[in-house]
Structure formats: C-alpha cells, structure tokens
TrEMBL record:
It comes from Candida boidinii (Yeast). GO terms for cellular component: telomerase holoenzyme complex. This is Unnamed protein product. It holds the Pfam family EST1_DNA_bind. Residues 125-159 have a biased composition (Low complexity). GO terms for molecular function: telomerase RNA binding; telomeric DNA binding. Residues 92-283 form the Telomerase activating protein Est1-like N-terminal domain.
Amino acid sequence: MSSVEDNNNISIKELITINQDKINDILNHRYTDESLLFGTIIFTQSKVQSYILTEFESQVKSKFIDTNNDNATGISNNLQDLNSKYLTPGNIVDKVWIAIHHPTIKYFQSQFYYLDKESRKLTNGNNNSNINGNGINSNNNTNNNSNNNINNNHNSNNNRRNDKTLNYKSVEFRKLFDSYVKFISKCYSFYFNVIHSLINKYNLSIYIPIKKICSTLKFELSKDVIKNLIDLPPATITDNDSHISNNNNSNTDTRNEVVSEIIYTIHKCILFIGDLSRYRTLIAKTYLPLNSISKEDNNNYSKSIELYKLSLLVLPSLGDPYNHIAIIDNLKDDKFNVVYNFMRSCLTTKPSIIGFNNLINFLSKDPLINPIFKQFEKLNCLNRDKITKNDRLELLKTEFLILLNYYLLPNKWKLKEGYLFKNYKIKDIQNDFLLLLSKLDFHKQIFNDFYLKQLSILLGGFELLIDNNKNHPDLIQDKLIISNYLKFIMKYFMNMMKTSINNNKLNIDSSSSQSSDNNNNNK
C-alpha cells in the first residue's frame, strides 16, 4: 500500500473521530446549538462522501481500466477485508452511522423522553413511558452498547397520545420534532447521495435491481447518464467476496472485490435509510398527537420495511435486514413474525449475530412474563366452536410458538416431561394445534404463507441446535433435545401431508360431483 493512500485512510478515520467528539461536545451542552450541530454533520458527510467516491474511482481505474499498468495495483488498495485495520468504503459508511448518526438519534430520543416526563409532571401523570425497551438490538456493531433499539408498547403510546390533558408543552414537542426531522433529512441526504452518485457513474444493472432502487428512492437515470455509465466487465460475485470473506491476489478476484464493495456500500446505505425512516416513524407515533402525525409517519413502518426488503434484493446473503424487520414486527406486537424474521436473519450466508442473540433472548424470556405465553393464556380459553377466524389464526400462531419454545428451549419452558410450566399438558396443546392447522385451506395465500413461515422456523430451529458456531447460554445443543425436536418436526410434516391429501380429495370429489351434475343437466 502506498504511503499516500495510508495517510488518506488514517485521515478519514481521524476526520470521523474528531467530528464525532465535536458532536458529542455540542450535544452535552445544556442548550444545543442546532446550526453548529447540523453544520458539523454536513461537513463530515461531505468529506466522507467525497472520499468514498474518489476511492471507488481509483479502484475502478486500477482494476478495470489500467489493467496493463504494472503499477496499477499500487494506485489504491484500501479494499481490505473486515478484519483489516484499514477501512473500506462500506466500513466507512458503517462508521458514519455508528459514530455520528445513531448517537445523535439517541440524543433526540432522550430529549423526547425527558420532555414527555416533564409534561406528565405538569399533568400529575404517573404513567411514565419507558424508551429503553426489552434489549432487542438493531445495530450491526455488537461492541456498541448504546445501540439497543427502542421497543415501546405500541398500545400504551396510542393511549398517551389520546390523553387530552397532555396539551402542555405541545409547542415544545412540535419544535423538537421539527429539529429531529431536519436532522433525519440531513442524514438521509448522505446515504442517498452516495447511492445516487454510484448508480449515476457505474453500470451495475447486471448485479443489482437498478430500476427498483430508482423507483423506491424516487429518482431517474436520464438517457444521457445511461449512455455515459462506466461498464464494469462481468465479474462473478460470490459469497466469498469482500465483506462476506476471503481475499485473493488474482486480478479476477480483485475485480470481484471492487464490484462487491460497491454493492455492499449501496446495500448499507439503503439499510440505513430504512433505519432513519423507522426511527422517525417511531418518534412520531410515540410522542405526537394522532392528529399531528403526517401521512409519511403514519404508514405503520411500511416504508422502512420496503427499504429493508430492497437492501435484501441488493445483497440477499446478509441477514441484518431481517433483524431490522423483526424489530418492526415487535413494535407491531406481531410475535410470530418477530420469531420468523429473527430466524431468517440467522439462516443467511452471512448470518446476523445480533439477530441470533435477539431470537434466543426473545424466546427465553421468563415464561411467566413472556408476551407469547400471555397471548396463549388469553386465546386458549376461547370456545373452539365459536372462535372467530382471526382469533383462530392468532391462537394457531401462539400455540406454534409455545411448542417451538418447549422443544427448542426445554430448559426454559419445560416444567417436567410432557408438561409446560403451570402444568399445561404439552400433548393437549400439540393435538389442538395440529387439529386447528388441518382445518386451514392452504390454497389460500394467507394460510400458504403461514405454512411456509412455520416450515422456515422449524428447519431454522433444527439448524441452530446442530450448528456448533451458534453459542448462547440458553440454547442447549443436547442429543436428547435434538431427538425430541426432530420427532415434533416429523409429526408436523405428517399432519401437513395428511391435510394436503385430504384437501386434494375434497377438490377431486367436488370436481367430479360438479361434472356429474353438468352431464345430468345436459341429458
């Protein structure tokens, strides 16, 4: 590596660190200088964006254009793997989020919390909301202890907003939210500009869904821009490239590494735009009156989910987006999809370590206060003959999670052999679950999806039990536990096959009967 590039790389790290300290100093003052805060953020983003684009330009020139130049590889060689002390462009995007954007979001969240607390004091309210959540982590850096996601109870937030006595400090709430939106907008511009610049410069259409990215982020590529795009010769991008692991010194592999790094950078930018959307919506739904929430913020996180799914289209081998989707499911109190998406985050080529820990922590939470068990007790008492379709589906989801917990984490959920804690007989729960499940028409899309998600969770649970790399104190990888888990899976498969055969018989009988009636009518 050349000394110039080395110095430049150190300088960009120093730049981020220096401005991180400046921002922390600004935020630690009693009265925050908003113009100074935003100015520092804009300056940092501008320098980092320029560095990223220049770095890619050098890389593309050396690897794709100047391939006959013996010294070409010395122009720039900063695209090291994740374990290197040098930062790649994708790592730099990560660092901007971890060091600059996310801590500032946490600052704004704390300001909303304390303003809400003061408002409650003025109204003699004793029902303080908690923004610290249940420990589910959304950030990609496991070493950053400040990155726990806010997990408010959604229903209590709605009740808080409907309280007419909370009109005190409403002006302060609005002013603070306006500042927060400005901050989110400036962060968004950084990630958007990086994506926009890369897509406007390089022809990436054979690697990622350019049209989908443009439509989601609402920009277009003009014909003139398309004509002038730099073609990157086809390179085989595999799961062993760049951020997914190994380096190699061959020219083909370094080409792969450049393209892979560009794709990874775009993936991370889309992911963080999704996070910005989620944090904005969360604050709006938590602290603003219902009639003050804009259409953009009252979308039930649909925009965030769209962005997370887009990041998966760009780079499906990384599990982090599933972890972020699961956090939104938790905010919606959709426990079944929380488990499904946490499980999906563990099963990609590059699994999310945070997603795995979130999954086990979520399932192993003390059963007596676990929301899954509370939901089960609430629905289990319903009359099966009079139960509504919606309640029946929710009961099925809850029974499935109870059975999953019993077989996957018996040390947490099993009272004794054959019994759940509180002396619920597991056989009764299992029989009820399989009976109700057999009555579903899996030809309908909603039930078809339900079946597929159950299968993904069950197979994922088995993978966790046999993968020695999956370590958690509450996950015991014991032969007897694995055997019992497999027996449950086989019962599930047998029930699904019987249901499928019975449904097909009914369809055949119905078709035969209809055909016979038509023939009789013709006679």
